## 1
Amino acid sequence: MLRYLTAGESHGLCLTAIVEGMPAGLTINQAAIDLELKRRQLGYGRGARMTSIETDKVNFLSGVRAGKTMGSPLTLQVLNKDTSIDKLPKVTRPRPGHADLSGVLKYDLDDVRTILERASARETAARVAVGALMKLFLKEFGIEVFSHVTKMGDGVAKTDTLSFDQIRKKAEVSPLRCADMKAEAKMIRFIDKAKKAGDTVGGSIEIVALNVPVGLGSHVQFDRKLDAKLAMQLMSIQAIKAVEIGAGTKVAELLGSQLHDQIFYSKQKGFFRKTHRAGGIEGGMSVGGPVVVRIHMKPLSTLRRPMMSVDIKNKQSFKATVERSDVSAVPAAGIVGESVMAFVLADALIEKFGGDSVAEIKRNYQGYLRQVAQF
Amino acid sequence: MLRYLTAGESHGLCLTAIVEGMPAGLTINQAAIDLELKRRQLGYGRGARMTSIETDKVNFLSGVRAGKTMGSPLTLQVLNKDTSIDKLPKVTRPRPGHADLSGVLKYDLDDVRTILERASARETAARVAVGALMKLFLKEFGIEVFSHVTKMGDGVAKTDTLSFDQIRKKAEVSPLRCADMKAEAKMIRFIDKAKKAGDTVGGSIEIVALNVPVGLGSHVQFDRKLDAKLAMQLMSIQAIKAVEIGAGTKVAELLGSQLHDQIFYSKQKGFFRKTHRAGGIEGGMSVGGPVVVRIHMKPLSTLRRPMMSVDIKNKQSFKATVERSDVSAVPAAGIVGESVMAFVLADALIEKFGGDSVAEIKRNYQGYLRQVAQF
Amino acid sequence: MLRYLTAGESHGLCLTAIVEGMPAGLTINQAAIDLELKRRQLGYGRGARMTSIETDKVNFLSGVRAGKTMGSPLTLQVLNKDTSIDKLPKVTRPRPGHADLSGVLKYDLDDVRTILERASARETAARVAVGALMKLFLKEFGIEVFSHVTKMGDGVAKTDTLSFDQIRKKAEVSPLRCADMKAEAKMIRFIDKAKKAGDTVGGSIEIVALNVPVGLGSHVQFDRKLDAKLAMQLMSIQAIKAVEIGAGTKVAELLGSQLHDQIFYSKQKGFFRKTHRAGGIEGGMSVGGPVVVRIHMKPLSTLRRPMMSVDIKNKQSFKATVERSDVSAVPAAGIVGESVMAFVLADALIEKFGGDSVAEIKRNYQGYLRQVAQF
Amino acid sequence: MLRYLTAGESHGLCLTAIVEGMPAGLTINQAAIDLELKRRQLGYGRGARMTSIETDKVNFLSGVRAGKTMGSPLTLQVLNKDTSIDKLPKVTRPRPGHADLSGVLKYDLDDVRTILERASARETAARVAVGALMKLFLKEFGIEVFSHVTKMGDGVAKTDTLSFDQIRKKAEVSPLRCADMKAEAKMIRFIDKAKKAGDTVGGSIEIVALNVPVGLGSHVQFDRKLDAKLAMQLMSIQAIKAVEIGAGTKVAELLGSQLHDQIFYSKQKGFFRKTHRAGGIEGGMSVGGPVVVRIHMKPLSTLRRPMMSVDIKNKQSFKATVERSDVSAVPAAGIVGESVMAFVLADALIEKFGGDSVAEIKRNYQGYLRQVAQF
């Protein structure tokens, strides 16, 4: 069992995650983790504030000795630059689209700040740190996770003719993490137009895990299904309003014969598919190969253009507005998506293969791969 | 904490669910529960087999005395008509789109039947029984859940001008659970055409919960978010490939100012919204009022039209086909969707309001409603 | 992850357990399971009622095909002989020592029966069925669990000079499951005297698991410790008021040098101990070899000799008494103890070795044993 | 749901706990929490090292704003004085009684330090910090938890004639947290003698919670029982080998009529007991009033007097010994016991009464107390 909890507010001292259940003997590549935190901070559409501030770094406060995991819980800390939470003024004006109003009603508070400090997407820095750790672990098994932006406004990426490797490389050097330059140009125009209008935009992101073995997750109980676990983690990301596996919403238009991935076999490859419309998951289990999901992020809820709201103190209507704001954080949401997907896969791997050290898990994993090959 | 496990195979003796954490004092309306089981069995597109067989009924084997819940775990049993699991022949031919192949590789089996018996959608009968129980509980708090089919092929329901009440009523009398007769006609043509071709179809379903109080779920941790919990349960339904909350995938096209639901206030209603594009959830919490989700079901994986597969015993390719098959089970999936949504809401209600008897939970609930009203 | 839920009342239709997470390919020995249910019904001190009735049997309603586990959840059902729950009269007189009074206050009930039906030790039949299944699984790894009664009144068993094997054999043929005949004679006198006086007695039981591998459980988090998990399951058995690991309460009298088990090594055995005062668990992990715990059962709470109580309806004092009653169920509690211990070990085994089939778990297990041997 | 995870090594930077599920609006009394940390560091029998070092203090890194809980997860940090984990030499000599040997075998390590750093009782500082927070919360409901040492060697405290209040006061000013001065003198002699011999000692501790309402925990499922939850948490404390509830192991000697607490009623008090031999728990539920448990701590495993062990590198036997060591940490274990008991009760309270703010939980709690009073 692998588990984690995050804690921390956006203007508190730090974000903290405790990760529990990691095997011993994993080499910690600090630079690789910090790079993930940096990737989360990039992307066209962020305000000047975001891109100019110092990049996040992770501190390991426990669980690591001499550069390796100890088997004991890891404490990951990401310090905040602005730690003024106790000095910041009370907020009585909830913003549409945020946790603000529901939060103060639920927790019986007279200050919206107590809610927004935790509901903020700043929390995802902790999740990216956790996910970066999971990526290091998955890499030991050849599993890799990446994301690319597929849609913003009228910019819709066409990537059908590209290999996953090509998509990955193109996305990694694109300011919007988009593998289709033409679509990206449209996306940028969409962002710029929104910016001028004081508005915000969202977008769609595809997240892909490569080299996933067959048989992660299970069909036997609702909460063991790999797609269900992915859906939970992905939908829990701030601002995500939809999760698709493989063909996703398109399944409502296709015929069965157009959708289902036929099964083939060769001595070398064993069983394989030529298509991947199921997104690599059938019956709650990975089929082996790539797992493909898509998430859809709503426009940021903090915008310069005014929206109607009500002051919680005096119950007067007002026009909610901010001085400045990011226009979009879609590429960043992709990094968060990669991170939680990495967690789900690492958890499923540890559930299936057991083990307390990386070496033991690898041994069990190799035994299973032989079993499948000799099936 | 409310929890449940289901068990049972499609040709075993029965399906069983144990439901744990239900308060004492809930009146069991057996007819209401059996009605839900019946609703799950209906719908245009099922084969003759499905519609002709006797309807399912639930037996309470524990947890109920004199028609009321006892606080102890409930055992819900739905008997199978065909219980020949031990006599049915071995299956060595996995079907594309099913758990079949991944299952035998993962569990190291030489018989696909061992997998398909459990992976089958028959399991959802147990979940509908559980959900029906949850609906009885939610009704004590005025919360109701319904579903309607919104898309199949080129049939796309237009329901913007209808109230939820109108949609509900129309859907309940429609053979496809569709509230738009014109769209339904197209859907039926889509089904009929597929049937003639030996093919299958999927579709999209909207599920709505009415009168949900503000503040179910929480923003404080990823696994406490109401949308994340809904996504997990909904994606765990057999054949579901996408889950949307509110505007869902549309958020990638809209501007922030077009999407976010502005906040209003009146003495009578307290805080309220005029739009519900967030689907009734912001920051992982219910905002109060309707909660709206959509799920997308893939075409059934068992079709008459042949698809390529490989025999697991001799590794020879073959054309997978069946004698007869349902063409669609989309309306039924809607009932399953209602059921798991009812569970998530009942669980969230019990988490927020505690209590061991219906009377106690109601007392706590009323206290909270007064708190919110006087905020 | 292995998990189970039990359901059922003592005069309801049946007891049910759903067991989830069992690997595929385990051969179900029905006779062995029924034998465990029978062992639970035996023991000197039971009333005529208990020993005369037909013995319990388990029905597998799911999860088994052709005599083997399928990987899917198992439904274990034990039918009740007396199923009159709905006809039995209301009870308004709570018995001291039972869940009766706290139960009606907590669940806001006017009928004690609603509580006692579930709180009754009848529930342990379900847990013994589950445990019997776990024993079958553990046997695949050479692990066996047994119990013997060590104390009742002034009867205190001396077993220091006996091997575990000898203790086990003697206990299995003793009417009190006691390996020391002299002590047993005293226990029987203690029971007989209590019986004459209309009173009841409890006792102490030792439970031993043999051939447990090193490294089950973990020191890294409070809820991963093997002793903590054992304590939870053992204390949850009806009427158990104390749990000891190894030397148990004696540790308050001993010096460190008298208690701790020194460490030795030989080429053949690897690391080993000559003493087992830690009960086979150090730092929350098994040390390898036997795991030894003791539980202490209070006298039955239903006695002929009157005790003062208060009618919940009219608040009048009365003398609680019953016509007839068992005097002791200590040997039976030992079987329940074996059962829950078997569950904890099976769960720990599956957590450490992963795997979805018995063959896969064995392969991983063998790999670990080699690793330890070559350490 | 209330949950926590701890992390941290004894010579790492710090111990960290994330506590999740605390309601909003609890005033944080930092001095009260630091006092608990100090209480854990005291007690006759600690070496000079322990008593001379600076006392622990807790830092709240999240979850608190303006001195009140926010509803969001709390991060509690206790800094270590010695943070040399990366510089400390490799250890190849496992100590009997510790996690050392099982740990290196399980996690496949060549350095015992990687295990002992986490298995050390230093971890309990985090649990005491968490428990101190729980005590603040419980105080809002009038619930208090304290401990006193009842046995060490031949020193056995007699406290039958004292009220809980008297015991508490006497224990709090005693160097051994013992309420019986005569017994304490014997205990001190026991300690001093062991010290001279280079040996270590353990002891027994009683932990009492006052003013617990009726109905925490439940009889309906094994893992909802209050005694089972207490047993888990208490047995998880480093070096604890036995847990008793109420009369505990004595139940094996007593008759039913001598043990069970008879039930009485008066208009003022409602239902009540004159005896508390059940330890305040029947049928897995609190009966209302004090809850009394006892834990038994083994002698410290690090002693000056040599014990046989084996070097894991060269497999040579050696005599395990240390330069200096504490002789006993029994009073400290009592503080840890109080802490985990406070957690279990706080969790049970939140499960029963729900609520997201202290005010809401209190309102629900008051409603329940009225319900019970009017029963």
## 2
Amino acid sequence: MKGKTKTGLNFSSGIVEMVHGSGGRAMSQLVDELFISAFDNPYLSQKNDQASFDLPAGRVVMATDSHVVSPLFFPGGDIGSLAIHGTVNDICMSGAKPYFLSAGFILEEGYPLKSLKRIVDSMALAAGEAGVTIVTGDTKVVERGNGDGVFISTTGVGVIPTGLDIAGSNVKPGDKIILSGSIGDHGVAVMSQRENLTFETTLLSDSQSLNDLVDVMVTAVPEIKCMRDPTRGGLGTTLNEIAQQSGVGIQFDEMQIPISAQVASACEFLGLDPLYIANEGKLVAFCAPEHSDQLLAVMRAHPKGWEASIIGEAVVDDHRFVQMKTAFGGSRVVDWLSGEQLPRIC
Amino acid sequence: MKGKTKTGLNFSSGIVEMVHGSGGRAMSQLVDELFISAFDNPYLSQKNDQASFDLPAGRVVMATDSHVVSPLFFPGGDIGSLAIHGTVNDICMSGAKPYFLSAGFILEEGYPLKSLKRIVDSMALAAGEAGVTIVTGDTKVVERGNGDGVFISTTGVGVIPTGLDIAGSNVKPGDKIILSGSIGDHGVAVMSQRENLTFETTLLSDSQSLNDLVDVMVTAVPEIKCMRDPTRGGLGTTLNEIAQQSGVGIQFDEMQIPISAQVASACEFLGLDPLYIANEGKLVAFCAPEHSDQLLAVMRAHPKGWEASIIGEAVVDDHRFVQMKTAFGGSRVVDWLSGEQLPRIC
């Protein structure tokens, strides 16, 4: 058949070659046999340079993330599933329902097609679980030594249901802060695989899409003020961002922060602060005190929020300080992360 | 002020550091002083992890491109303006009006902030010229040797005006093919800067946004069947893609293809075929024969289409061959590009 090579891609021992990024026949084959095959939907199959679709009425939300996690595979996930979760979560933290994603791949010459297929299949699975469709994409190839295996940029669009107003600037003093679960799992799981750091752990990354959890939250309490997923920079940085945006102080209680024994001991061993370690499947939500019990209840009833707890509240503070009541009864200022704890964690 | 470092970024001798991708204070500073400052709009200034906006009624279009062009600066453009043009053009080839863009940056540790600022300013200028707004973004940093300066992934959303149906599968035998201008300029301009190839030329890349040209085209002839910008793989590959999608053959006339003397001589010198060289500011349009004169007239009246010409037509051909009548009166099959002519051209 014209326009195809006669033999299929070699997914057992083939590698990414410069010609796969040329725009010609080899790229067309990669798109057909890898991406369209895995993501399987009528938008991609049309093979236009763009996708078109209808969206429900409402305010449209757009979010993007470029993923450079190293290593590409880690306990509990890989760059493929992470690239879906990261963007789905950025979309749904606005209360929006995510619908459509684009995916841009920057591949390094020589990367095994077998591993690339594993990543792409993982993306397809994660997209299916989150109920989103990968409708358009792009593939580029760079020479050996000018990349690092695979980088994936995803962008998503979603729509905010009428009546929601969820943003970082909405928090008022007195609002309660609910954390959906344990912190530090993603960062420690990825770090456990680094060449120079390998340590024994059965810990898995928490990488997951949160749109189903958000769905029950905004249905029960449409008055939620703000939600955010504490990814790079961790919970400590996220709370500082929100304090800054809303012009409030934040006080929270260390004893209320769920943390696994494995994360706690890895952090102690490596001298890291779990408050600054990345999460990829957790969120913090701010709501008025009269809604906090109800919101906590629906979160705890959901499998992705069973460990949820009210960790503190927003307070009047012109300095916008984030402060933590420590386990020993003292108080500590939790500043922005100023150095680099863990490079390339997402 | 809390949440900021006290001194500004050093745009004269500073470099990208790993900490600029950490999610903490340094990243926040980079976002504030570089991206928000250059792209200057109320969506970005809100500093949420997503942007929300209203779109006019109509079918929504989404397109994405990851840009890895090398070198990052070339005659007539740079990776920043190219990242806007590429995605704006993918959006508007569907007839859609582009509105909002996201931008994801993958920066290599050590890259000069001065050059990065030049790229970002160029993006801002190109976005302003095209009338699109960069509403959300992401920044990652990889270690020296794991990237190549700057990669930029852009994704755009737009809306198709009611009544248009423009797609690669719509072409029928008899439809005329109009090319908007000369071919090969972008590829040859970039190539002229490659370390191992440097040659003398005053040629500029044709990199430009085509949404204003498309606007006059679809207003005059809403019945346009298909439009596409012949980027990677060049005009030859684009015509093969459309022949394949629509199930037609294509015949065109070499004498009708505008090409500059500089591109022609560079191609002869280097043994390259201009039909496969990338363009970043040209389009081909297919329309019924009764509309072709009118469409050609409005294109020629526009500064981005003054060299437009009818280059050929779609024909009945079960083999979906693309054939060119040569300048010497013969005929040649123009196959898909099967090798790699010019890596990292966009």
## 3
Amino acid sequence: MQFSTTDTRIGWIGTGVMGQWMCRHLMDHGFQATVTNRTKAKAQPLMDLGAEWKETPEEVAAASDVIFTIVGFPKDVEEVYLGESGILKGARPGAVVVDMTTTSPSLAQTIYKEAASKDVRAVDAPVSGGDVGARNAALSIMVGGDKDTVKALTPLFEIMGKQLVHQGPAGSGQHTKMCNQIVIAGTMIGMCESLLYGEKAGLDLEVMLSSITGGAAACWSLDNLAPRILKGEFDTGFFVEHFVKDMGIALEEARRMNLALPGLALVNQLYQAVMAHGGSRMGTQALMRALKQLNNAI
Amino acid sequence: MQFSTTDTRIGWIGTGVMGQWMCRHLMDHGFQATVTNRTKAKAQPLMDLGAEWKETPEEVAAASDVIFTIVGFPKDVEEVYLGESGILKGARPGAVVVDMTTTSPSLAQTIYKEAASKDVRAVDAPVSGGDVGARNAALSIMVGGDKDTVKALTPLFEIMGKQLVHQGPAGSGQHTKMCNQIVIAGTMIGMCESLLYGEKAGLDLEVMLSSITGGAAACWSLDNLAPRILKGEFDTGFFVEHFVKDMGIALEEARRMNLALPGLALVNQLYQAVMAHGGSRMGTQALMRALKQLNNAI
């Protein structure tokens, strides 16, 4: 199995803030694309570059050799793959499907099995790096699936990302992304409680940060999100509702595996409070606001 | 106020794994030192280099212009400063005392006030960087106290550390160190739960880490302690009992300030479990063992 710009037609489902850049990089490298999206207007830039529009995932799949998806929530993934007009209705035998949404490892395994029964190969390949990583083709791509399929997809992944790691069988990409999010849950609560403590103790938080960011407390969140909190900038960044989705998936998978993760569970609850206060579309640093509310200090 | 190797005699109380190096750096730069320690044998290397031994903190203080302390727990600091044969019994008017132990900000403020009543100036200056940082004079020093005193001490701190930041009035150094430890509590729970999830999900943890250490989950703990966990190396690193001490101080200060820190409280409880299972003198990565016990997977 080998993909080339002359023989391979790609399908792309989900042309949002991430997908439109990722698809565009493939098109820039010469691939012909067929696309669809819930909101057609968001696919217009790609159509302007020559992408063909189809109304349903089924039709996109029927026209493509490799179909990529990056949509919203697990229920969207389920609909796009297994629904009435889903990919698996239209995909031809021998086709490859690649879900790059962060979604449930169990769902990835279900899709893998359903696809296999139709001689379609499925790979899960969630990413980290956000919209900046998507735009700059600098994503980290965590891949689960059969070795041969992953190998064949490698040149395509390399167009979209900087770091590509095959993590194991179907679902392993998603599990790895969950590991990523679980660490972040920890760094977020640590960072926010530290800032809250420092503020309450009367420290100059910028000066405080200058003492701690270079040592054993060093973390990406402290470097990148603490400055936003200090500026009162809560509207930018990775949406709370997406992080809550991810933590929910991790906790549900942990439940299936009979695994208690008390830290993750607590952070998830505090983010539920951020949601309850209308913070769904704020950046994850809005956890600070829930902690302040909790302490009646807003 | 200015200190020089010709006019200034330093005192050093606490010649353990950190203190013996810090004192030695000052001696290497030409300062005459008077020392004491609970276990005399540990001060022998400094005496071999010319340090004078005294039996009590009071006697050390009486012989010194600047007295440094780095001992164990807050009760030790209290004893060393305010006890029967404590520093403040012996310190001469005009002397400067510098506590580099990680201890309670409130205690630092008490010492500051008690010292001031005897015309002695007190500074709190806890450090991060561990024994390696102490040996290589690469510590981060977080300083609380009066501006003039801190300024006068700066040349001495620069002999011991790489990064020196004056954080504010007495207690601010300790508060800053607490901020540091609160972040670490978060990175530790995030890292350990991530590894536990990954292991249970059947991932190859080294491969998993290769996907997540370069992005938004990046943190010192993941880089430095996750590899130890993978090797089953729990006996090295920052002692659990010292981290539990630090978290206890932070939680007690938070209580005084009417501040709820649910994440820190949870991590503290899990480390109490590590202690209950005999892990006091293990490295902080032993949190992984408590989480495994919790999940009955050891």
